[in-house]
Design goal:
Ribosomal Protein L30, Chain: A; three-stranded antiparallel β-sheet; 29% helix; 2 helices
Length: 63
């Protein structure tokens, strides 16, 4: 039986204008393109790291 990976629903709630370059890069790396855009990503340490870097711009829910 395959183990089901957890997923996270990530939504951008604040603008990246005026943010640091690495915060913008993390938001882009998650696949978010614009304000209020929502993506579903795997719950991996890499994705958690990007989310934690720019958590002030994002809203996160477990799916």
């Amino acid at each position: 039986m395959a183990k089901k990976n957890k997923q996270l629903k990530v939504t951008q709630i604040r603008s990246t204008i005026g943010s640091l370059k690495n915060h913008k890069a993390c938001v882009k790396g998650l696949g978010i393109r614009r304000m209020h855009h929502t993506v579903i990503v795997e719950d991996t340490p890499e994705n958690r790291g990007m989310i934690n870097k720019a958590i002030h711009l994002l809203e996160v829910e477990e799916v």
